[in-house]
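Hi R.,

Here's the chain you asked about this morning:
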Amino acid sequence: MHKQKFFVLILLFTVCLIHAKNITYNLDTSLDEVSTNEMFQVTLEIINAGNASVTLLEENPAVTLREAGKSSSFSFTNGQQSSSVTITYIAKATKEGRQKIGPFRIKNRSDSVDTSPIFVTVSASSKNQNANPQENEEAFIKTVVSKTSVYECEFIDISVLFYTSVETRINDYTQLEFPSNTWTEDIRSEKEHKRRIQIGNRLYDEYEIERKRLFINTAGEYKISPAKINLYLFSRSALFSFYSTPVFLETEPINIIVKPLPKPPIELEGTIPAGTFTADVTLSSLEVKVGEPITMTVTLNGSGNFYVINKYPISYGKEIEVFTSKSNLLKNGNTAVGKSWETILIPKKQGEYTVSAAPFTYFDTQAYEYKMLPEKSFIIKVSGNDAETSAMQTIDFNSSIAEKQKSKKVDPKSLFMISNVLEKHPVNHSNMPFIFIMAAMYLLATVFFTVYLIFKFALTKENKAVHPLKRLEREVNKIDANDLSKAVEKLYGELEIFIINEFEIDSVDIRKNTLEEKLSSKLPEDSTKELIDIISEFEIIRFGGMDASASGMNALRNRVLKLCRKLDKYKDSK
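And the predicted structure, written out as tokens:
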């Protein structure tokens, strides 16, 4: 009994010692220099004040600050006990210059401490925008270009490669920007992870996050804007703990020189075909009758600017009539590898005729000279006579109708026989019950089917009538905040459903770049920007290795509801 009392006294004395310690803190930022609209972390570690409340004393309109998570720790070292609480904020500066964050007030019971403010330097370009592995050893991004000097319509392959030696989470990616007169094809393979590669003393995972094939139609000098990526690098701080660091990377801009094509040996209409090509020409038949169709199929294979090649030249005599022609672009994945044309030829007279796929001139981008695919000719034999041709080509609809009317003669005896049948075979009343039963069954089936359609239509209409905003508000109010991780996932899911239903876009399009494109014509710029900020904040909380706090969750819930009400009101006003 005395031992138990002694243990309780020791415990109470220890707790008192802990609370008797002065409140100390550490306030820091993950980056000292950032670019505008670049996200970074602000961490406030409070030591020996586990139940303290924190208040931001001064708000800077140029810096947005959102609480993203809170973690606690307790240690016993060399007979000394200590506890700490770390609050993590996600910050973003929107104005250049030296921006102030804080001070904060930490209050624990009767004790209160005001922190000193911290400062970050905000510029249009940050020191963290590295594309060189020597400047950022844990991760870097670069572009690989097949050529930087080409002829008009000669294709260029550009890849964006991302290298990382630690676990990462990509928050946002901005693709390469190409000149307005550029035709592009997305030729990235389905497998993004390409290989593991040794660079220096570090082993990297290599990913191809973008690969484009582009054709520029006009000679000149062009600049391709860099690709940009916001991500988090995860590093282990202890056996079971990680910390994340926000990083912004971008590639170097690319300068392209496009040279004009040499003058062709013959005059060509439209844009000159450029690439390497072969042609395959076939006819559906070499022997037909007058008026029977023949299909000529021309397939142009290889690599080049197929998108500007509108037709393949063919030649035929005046006895051949062309009724229709259609083209089809052939692709391997997203890459154009050919184009085919189907032309319908109909001979009008009997005899032997020559049809040809005419010579095809193009600029060979491998040999850098003009080449010509040879002509390929066919001789078709047409049987029949001129009378058949005239009958097929001239049809008098009035005379044909008159002929049909003349041919429809009714025999009076057949009419007499029909009337006699009706007179001699009156209705058999013994079959009446069967007729009534069948009619009743038909009526019941009709009623049942009609009722079914009415109910189905009503249910469908009811389901469609559920307003996206009302559904969002109803589901958000059901969220159980006791499990914060599930609450965050549920809130994000409902926001995603609202965006999909309200603006009719796919879930895969709910990314920064795609949202800007999809919603630019539907929402004001500030609303789109606010939506992207909220989605970015969700990504940071969900994948940034931080635990959400109850206050942060409530603030995020209120932001989502406020924004969705604003978006719904704006859409109704339109």
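The CA atoms of residues 38 and 92 lie 6 Å apart.

Let me know if you need anything else.
M.
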